[in-house]
Amino acid sequence: MTVSAKQWLQRIHELPHKGKVKIMNVCGGHERSITMAGLRKALPDCIELIPGPGCPVCVCPEEDVFEAIQLALNEDIILVAFGDMLRVPVNVKKAQARTLEQAKAQGADIRPIASPTEAVSIAEQNLDKPVVFFAAGFETTTAPVAAMIVEGVPDNLSILLSGRLTWPAVAMLLESGEPGFDALIAPGHVSTVMGPEEWEFVVTEHNIPAAVAGFKPESLLAAMYSVLRQLYEGRYFLDNCYSELVKPGGNKSAQAHLKKAMNIYDANWRGVGIIPASGYILDKQYSAHDARKLFPSYADAARRRAGKMPPGCDCAQVVLGKIYPNQCKLFGKACVPRSPIGPCMVSDEGACRIWWAGGMRESAQ
Fold first, then answer.
1. Residue 200, H or E segment
2. Architecture of domain 57-166+250-304
3. CA–CA separation, 134 vs 244, rounded Å?
4. What is the model's pTM?
């Protein structure tokens, strides 16, 4: 029997609540569904929902965005990137291009795309010119990039890769000694690709209940009910509340493509720093399509330091679930979707942009 969102809410309200419980979600899509459905206001007051590190645009290192901008401006290439990446700002002087969008306005050939197949099509249509695909994203978007590479791409297409894995950021929070949450809602799309088992460590190593959720209120509320009940009964396990798409073992084909095309390394996260085993890098067998090996380096080592967000921007604290979006002093003032200061206000998966779109327009500062 299908349980409705209303019924899940009723079950949650009927639980023996004893005190404040903080539940973190690790997916921008989850945060969007939670906010747009008004779930925070519908839940008991003792339940606090915390948006976590679920936005790949938000954590893409500044040095990678800067390198993409400089490549597009200084080399005779076509640069393609997922649409949200065009508006992510870097810290430069006012006269310089601070986003790919501004670099495009200055004459660079930069084109937004929605999928890797579009990158291949653009390369095939422009065989006389190098095409660089600035590929940023988590496992769900990196897996199709890996498949594209393994299946073969035009000689003139190269990849400027900035892929990240989701679980190491959660592991870092849990190992910090102050994770800031009591239960975890694990990401549905990532679990579809990598398998729900990837999140077992939350329970087995840190004794925190976890549940994989989909994107409808019914699935999210089912996951919340599961972790709350686990907490109250003292019996912790990983629950799969998105079983229609998340299967044991995940997508083996996608995993095989990732394993063949890419290696894992200790990667930088914007505003966070280096997280062990959290990034994807192209395997050496595909070095002929590695933009970092084909073009002069425009990397700026000074941009690698943790905390390299725009002045006054608290996006890093939002990403780590340390503060809510409206607790940033720029939120709703200097930083709005039309003129974002920080990356969390750029993407539809950024918590600040989601809260703004959901009607939260006032800063708590």
1. helix 200-204
2. 3-Layer(aba) Sandwich (3.40)
3. 32
4. 0.93
